[in-house]
Amino acid sequence: MKTALIALLGETRKGLLTTWTYRANAVVTIFTLGCTFIGIGFLMGGGDIDPEELASTFLGYLVWFYALMAISDVAWGLRGEIQTGTLEQMSMSSTPVGLLLLGRSLANFIVSTVQVLIIGEAMFSLLDIRIPMRWEGLPVLALTLAGIYGAGFIVAGATLVYKQFESFANLMQNGLLFLSGALLPVEEMPAWLATISRTLPSTQGIVVLRRVVLDGQSLAAVWRDGSLVWLIVHSAIYLAVGWLFFSVCEQIAKKQGSLGQY
Amino acid sequence: MEPSAVIRLDSLSKTYRSKSGKPIQAVRQVSLSVPERQVFGFLGPNGAGKTTTVKMICCLVRPTSGRAHINGYDVWHRRSAAMRQIGVVLEGTRNVHWSLSAWNNLIYFGNLKGLWGKKLTSQAEHLLHKLGLWDRRQDLVRTFSRGMQQKVAIACALIADPPIVLLDEPTLGLDVQAARTVEDMIKRLAHEQGKTVVLTTHQLDLAEELCDRVAIISKGRIIADQPVEELLDLFSEEYYQIKVKGAPPAGLAARFGLNVKEENGNTILSGPIADQEALYDLLGRLRALGLPLISASRAEPDLEEVFVRMLDTDDAAQGGSAQ
After folding, report:
1. Interior angle at CA B83, CA B74 and CA A239, nearest 5
2. Which of the residues A39, A238, B110, B207 could staple to A150 if both were Cys, CB 3.0 to 4.6 A apart?
3. Which residues lie across from B22 on neighbouring strands?
C-alpha cells in the first residue's frame, strides 16, 4: 500500500515537473482557451457580451476544460510514453499502471485547476462575469471530475490497443464541448440529443453544478430532486468502467506484445 | 526450482498473430536457468526472439504458454514481487524521460520502485557520483550525449539496488568510449556488486568479453546454452590457423571456407577444417603456390565463429527436417 502510494505520488511529481519543463505550452493553452471563450461570448451575444448569461456558459466551459485536459493527457501523453519507451518502464513498476495513471490524473488536475483559476480571473476581469464562490460546488465538482477521469481511463485503455486513437479522442473532446451541455444547456436540446448528452461523462456534473453554484440550491435540494444521486451513479459507473476497460486493454496489449509499439 | 537459479524459464512460448490471422511463432519452448552472480549472454540474430523473451521475463509480453520465474516469483502470478527483483534497460534510446533532469529521473524511477526519502536520495547521489554524472544532475536528459543518456538509464535501473539486471543491447549505437564505460559498468555490477546480469547483444566480442555463460536463440528456439569456454571448445578441434608469407589467391580461402587476415606482409587463414585430408590438401596447395609456411596450428575460435557455425548447423538441420 505504502509502495503504491509512493509510486502514485512519484507519478504526480513527474507530471508536474514535465508541465514545468514545457510551461510555455501551458501558458499558450491558457491564452488560447481564454480567447476562444471570449469568441464564444461574442458569438452567443450576437456581437455583445452579456455577463449574466455568460456565467452559466462559462461554468460549463470550465468543466469542459477539465475534460479537455484529462483526455489530452491520457491520449497524447500516453502515446508519447509509448513512443519513447517510458511506458514499458512504468509497466515494470511493482505498482499497477492503472494506479500510476491515477497519480498522473492528480497532476493533471492540479495543473488544470491552476489554469482554470487564471482563465477564471481573466474572464472575471475582462468580461465582468461573476460566479458565486459556494463551497457546495466543490463536492459536485469532485464528483464531476471523477466521471471525467473515468472517461480518461477509457481513452487511455483504447490508446494502448488502438495506437492511433488520438483522432477519436480529438472528436470526443470537441463533441463534449457541444454535446455535454457546456454551451447549450441540456434542457434546451432536442429530446434525442438530450438523451445522448446525458450519457456523456461531464453532462450531469454541469447540470448539478449550475443548480448548486448559480441557482444557489443546497446539496440536500439536489439530492432530493435526484440530480445529485444520478451524478454519483453516473460518475461511479464511468470510474469503474474506465478502470476495468483500462485493465482489460493493458492485458490485450501485453498479449499482442504491443505495449511499447506505436 | 534450483536454489541458485535467479531466473528460470520453463517452456516459454509466444505466438503472435499477423494482421491476416496467421500465427507467427516468435519464441518456442524456451527453457533456461540463470544462476546468481553470473553474466548471462542472450545472443541471436535479428528477429530470433531475444527481445520477446526478455519482455516476457519483464512481464511486458504475456507468454502463450510456459512460465518465467524471477528469484522464485512467477512473473505473472507474483508480478509485484518479481518486478522488485529486477532493473531493466530495454533496447532503444529512450528508457528515461528526456524532459526531466538526471536527478529527477532517478527520483521518479526510485518512487516507481517504492523508494523515497533519505534512502532514495542517497542512492541517487551514490549512482550519479559513480557514473560521473553528478555535476550535470540538474540538466535535462535531452541535452545529454547518447552515452550519458544510457548511463542515466542504467542508473535508473539500479536505483532500487535490484539483485538482477537485464540489459537489452546496452552498447548499441554508442561510440567507442561510451561503449567502454558501459562495459566496465557491467563488469563491476557482476564482479564487484555480485549482481546477476542478463545481457542481450548482437556484439559477440562484447558477449565473449563479459559473459560467463551464453544462450544462442535462433528462430525462437534455444540452440545452445553453455558456459562461454565450453562453447568455444565445441569447434576447437577442427579450427585451424595457418600463417604464410605473401598472399594466396582469394579463391583459395573461399574454397576452404576460411577467413583471411593480412598482417605485416603475411596472410593468416583461419577457420574450421573438417579433417586431416582437407588440411593437407590446403597445405599442399599453398606449397604449390610457393608461399612459405610460417606456422600452422589448431586455434580456439572466437564466439563469432561459434555463433555463425551454430546458426549454420541449425539452419542445415531445420532444412533437413523440413525435407
Report:
1. 100
2. A238
3. none
For chain A, give every domain's residue range. 2-256
Complete DSSP assignment for A22-76: THHHHHHHHHHHHHHHHHHHHHHTTTS--HHHHHHHHHHHHHHHHHHHHHHIIII
Q: What are phi and psi of B202, to 5 degrees?
A: -90, -20
Angle A114-A75-A103 (CA atoms, 0-180°, nearest 5)? 55
Query: Tens digits of per-residue pLDDT, B182-211?
Result: 888 888 888 888 899 999 987 788 888 889
Handedness of CA B267, B271, B276, B282 (dihedral sign): negative
Q: Do B98 and A84 touch (CB under 8 A)?
A: yes
Q: Is the pTM of this model over 0.80?
A: yes
- Grid coordinates given for A53: 448569461
Distance CA B196, CA B186 (A): 10
Predicted confidence (pLDDT) at residue A242 exceeds the cutoff of 70:
yes
pLDDT tens readout for residues B278-322:
889 999 999 999 999 998 888 777 777 777 777 777 777 776 554
A190 pLDDT above the threshold of 80: yes
The three grid cell numbers given for residue B215, joined into one nine-digit string:
544462450
Reading the block at residue B164, the C-alpha cell is: 538482477
Q: Which amino acid is at A28?
A: V
Amino acid, single-letter form, for residue A38: I
End-to-end CA distance of chain A: 32
Q: Give ipTM to 2 decimals.
A: 0.86
Distance from CA of B29 to the nearest CA of A (A): 17
The number of C-beta contacts closer than 8 angstroms across A and B is 107
**Which of A85, A86, A92 lies nearest to residue B58, judging by beta carbons?**
A92
Tell me whether A162 touches chain B (CB under 8 Å): no
Residue B239 phi, psi (nearest 5): -110, 125
Q: At what angle do helices B117-130 and B102-112 cross, to 10 degrees?
A: 130
